[in-house]
């Protein structure tokens, strides 16, 4: 039975199953039961002992690898940010307050150009995230996996924030800087926002356009990962998921 379940799991992965089509709740229940003796499993009518810690852990990692790839692919393209209202990066609050006046005096095109360049910068930076996210998954311990599977709807997303946000920000910042360095309004904003932050008029995190865009790009990426994670926990969809639900359904018996 163990070999049959493992073969089914590996076969599904080989067919590039969308990771967020995995039923994480079923897998979580499987991991919870790992460690029970065969007699205990038999007594409870469950076959979960047929899956080892490592097999269940590998199943989750395969799911997360596919999932983060999907999130990165959705955002790391033209209009990935600019065309998505949920993650589109707006002008910093201090600029939004004077945007109407800017348009009155003929500076509206500069504001529009900055918004476009900020979002294009985020779209260019996000593909750099994939390697860091995959590395984080590889380093995930069994304890981490159990916490994700039995945790809240965004448990995996919180894990990624904890393990990748600092390094990801360092990767994003040079790309964002290059994309915005020739935007006149961005440089003007940096000059006055830095002064404003010293007097508490502008939030420190918004006082530099490059850091502002980097932070918003990270927020957007984690938001998309969280949405996908919550969706699969709630209701796996598609034929591929049906196959995997049969596998994990058998484990739960």
Written description of the protein model:
This protein has one domain. The protein starts with a helix and ends with a helix. Helix content is 71%, strand content 0%. α4 (53-75) packs antiparallel against α8 (129-138). The relative contact order is 0.18. The model is unreliable at 1-23, 34-50 and 237-253 (pLDDT under 50). It has 13 helices and no strands. With 253 residues, the chain is mostly helical.
Residues in β-strands, percent:
under 5%
Query: So what's the overall shape?
Result: elongated
Total number of strands? 0
Q: What is the subunit arrangement here?
A: single chain
Radius of gyration: 23 Å
Order of helices and strands: HHHHHHHHHHHHH
> What would you call the structural class?
mainly alpha
Count of helical stretches: 13
Q: Average pLDDT, to the nearest integer?
A: 76
Percentage of residues assigned to helices: over 70%
Main sheet makeup: none
- The total number of structural domains is 1
Give the helices and strands, then pairings.
Layout lengths: L1 H13 L9 H10 L4 H6 L9 H23 L17 H4 L2 H6 L3 H18 L3 H10 L3 H9 L4 H26 L3 H15 L10 H26 L4 H14 L1
Helix pairs in contact: 1-4, 1-13, 2-4, 2-9, 2-13, 4-8, 4-9, 4-12, 7-10, 7-12, 8-10, 10-12
